[in-house]
């Protein structure tokens, strides 16, 4: 028997914008498939019609495409197991409900919400883990018909086999074992007729021939249920791997105050997809290689055994580091497009390449480029408090000399600064900081030797005069 090719899947529920935690799962799945020359499948888990919205389905696909996570099977591209939206698969699920009912592996349950809540409360009070107490397990056919005749709408519960050890080898966490007696009979179809997540998710993984299910560890306790369900139906059980969740750098669950956390936010701020991918691929997964990599590079050494078990920490500084790497690796034209209209309106077209290359290592997001475009091309120049202070300290004689030096060397900062040094005797910070402060309004930034030619002699002269 030949082993089937690796098939991974991303199975989002379209109830909101794609969160960075989910985006990382999608990336891991895509990289693992690519690493194995396998298939990455996308399935939309939209059976909960009240919470799902078509808008989110569209945006999440756009987000995945933006992240260069192309799926080889799924919405838009099709495949042998279409349709790939669960809302279009009700007929398929019906067959399996019928099979479970026919084999006595599922039964209708008429317990009301109140009855279930009361039972949970009683069990908790007795120090027991709450699970279905089994009220409707043994209803006779007559009892079922009588309740249906009263207009009661039952849920359908899976009859969990008793006294079984459910064991599996988690791809990330190693051997796992559960006792089926700890698991109550669970709902596979809601009273309104819609299938439950446990059910559709497991059935589709089997029918779509997914081999490796990588998902968040919040699903770990669902896995024994899903394995029992698949075994009851004679369907193939995939390998499961549960990945730890992402926490903020402070150890608290990721939230708004840790910065942007949806793919939409990150995109809108101007992060590059490969910056995000280089970051997320290292969040809870270890590469020996610390270079900035493209998707092929990231996939080549992606290794499921290098996914950590501890929760990963989200760190904006790390994301920004990879963004700066992406900027360093981007070509000038791509950056010119990326900086946006506000910059293109300020920078003379013939200086665009020089401008981009001058600021390249000093920016993280387009808004930083806007700041530099204003510094270089608009007046009057605002001075930061520190710049103002340094200018005050240097005093007028310094800038009189700087003006004369500029006339001698209007395009050559090194020569100009050398001239000032000769005249006023300043050196090091005492020489360069006042010049930078007067010409840019800041104490940090790109090399002055590159800035001066972009400013041009006239603007530089005006700025030195202005501080005088
Ligand atoms: N639709 C589920 C979710 O978004 C999928 C979980 C899984 O990957 O199995 O949480």
Structure description:
With 468 residues, the protein is mainly alpha-helical. The chain contains 20 helices and eleven strands. The protein has helices spanning 20-35, 54-66, 90-102, 113-125, 141-149, 197-207, 222-232, 263-269, 273-280, 295-300, 316-329, 332-339, 341-344, 352-359, 366-377, 385-394, 396-408, 413-424, 429-440, 448-467, and strands at 7-10, 39-42, 106-109, 155-158, 165-170, 174-179, 186-189, 212-216, 239-243, 246-248, 312-314. A three-stranded antiparallel β-sheet has the order 3-4-7. A two-stranded parallel sheet has the order 1-2. Strands 5-6 form a two-stranded antiparallel ribbon. The radius of gyration is 31 Å and the shape is elongated.
Heteromolecules bound: glutamic acid
- Helix-strand makeup class: mainly alpha
Count the E strands.
Answer: 11
Radius of gyration: 31 Å
Q: How far apart lie the N and C ends?
A: 85 Å
Shape: elongated
Task: Count helical runs.
Answer: 20
Strand order of the largest sheet: 3-4-7
Helix content: 40-55%
Instruction: Report the β-strand fraction as a percent range.
Output: 5-15%
Low-confidence segments, given as residue ranges, are none
Mean pLDDT: 95
Largest sheet: 3 strands, antiparallel
SSE arrangement:
Layout: E1 7-10, H1 20-35, E2 39-42, H2 54-66, H3 90-102, E3 106-109, H4 113-125, H5 141-149, E4 155-158, E5 165-170, E6 174-179, E7 186-189, H6 197-207, E8 212-216, H7 222-232, E9 239-243, E10 246-248, H8 263-269, H9 273-280, H10 295-300, E11 312-314, H11 316-329, H12 332-339, H13 341-344, H14 352-359, H15 366-377, H16 385-394, H17 396-408, H18 413-424, H19 429-440, H20 448-467
Parallel strand pairs: 1-2, 8-9, 10-11
Antiparallel strand pairs: 3-4, 4-7, 5-6
Helix pairs in contact: 6-7, 9-11, 12-14, 16-19, 17-18, 17-20, 19-20
Glutamic acid binds next to loops.
């Amino acid at each position: 028997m030949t082993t089937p090719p690796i098939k991974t899947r991303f199975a989002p529920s379209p109830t909101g914008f794609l969160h960075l935690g989910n985006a990382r799962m999608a990336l891991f799945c895509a990289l693992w498939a690519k690493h194995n020359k396998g298939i990455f499948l996308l399935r939309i888990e939209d059976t909960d019609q009240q919470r799902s919205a078509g808008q989110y389905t569209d945006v999440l696909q756009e987000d995945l495409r933006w992240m260069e996570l192309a799926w080889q099977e799924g919405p838009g591209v099709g495949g042998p197991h279409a349709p790939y939206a669960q809302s279009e698969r009700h007929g398929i699920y019906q067959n399996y409900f019928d099979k479970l009912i026919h084999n006595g592996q599922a039964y209708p349950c008429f317990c009301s919400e109140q009855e279930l809540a009361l039972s949970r409360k009683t069990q908790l009070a007795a120090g027991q883990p709450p699970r279905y107490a089994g009220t409707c397990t043994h209803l006779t056919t007559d009892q079922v018909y009588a309740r249906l005749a009263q207009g009661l709408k039952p849920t359908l519960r899976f009859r969990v086999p008793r006294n079984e050890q459910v064991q599996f080898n988690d791809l990330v966490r190693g051997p796992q074992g559960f006792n089926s007696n700890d698991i109550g009979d669970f709902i596979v179809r809601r009273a309104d007729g819609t299938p439950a997540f446990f059910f559709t998710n497991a059935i589709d993984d089997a029918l779509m021939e997914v081999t490796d299910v990588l998902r968040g560890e919040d699903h770990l306790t669902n896995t024994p249920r899903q394995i029992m369900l698949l075994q009851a139906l004679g369907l193939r059980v995939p390998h499961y791997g549960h990945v730890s969740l992402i926490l903020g750098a402070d150890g608290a669950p990721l939230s708004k105050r840790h910065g942007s956390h949806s793919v939409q936010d990150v995109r809108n701020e101007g992060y590059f997809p490969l910056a995000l991918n280089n970051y997320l691929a290292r969040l809870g997964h270890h590469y020996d290689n610390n270079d900035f990599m493209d998707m092929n590079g990231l996939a080549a050494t992606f290794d499921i055994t290098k996914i950590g078990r501890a929760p990963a920490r989200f760190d904006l500084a790390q994301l920004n580091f990879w963004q700066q790497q992406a900027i360093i690796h981007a070509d000038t034209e791509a950056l010119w497009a990326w900086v946006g209209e506000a910059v293109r309106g300020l920078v003379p077209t013939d200086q665009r390449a020089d401008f981009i290359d001058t600021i390249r290592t000093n920016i993280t997001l387009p808004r930083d480029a806007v700041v530099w475009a204003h510094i270089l091309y608009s007046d009057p120049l605002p001075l930061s408090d520190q710049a103002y202070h340094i200018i005050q300290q240097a005093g007028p004689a310094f800038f009189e000399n700087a003006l004369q030096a500029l006339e001698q060397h209007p395009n050559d900062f090194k020569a100009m600064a050398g001239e000032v040094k000769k005249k006023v005797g300043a050196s090091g910070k005492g020489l360069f900081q006042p010049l930078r402060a007067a010409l840019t309004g800041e104490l940090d930034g790109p090399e002055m030797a590159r800035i001066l030619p972009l400013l041009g002699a006239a603007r530089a002269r005006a700025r030195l005069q202005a501080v005088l």
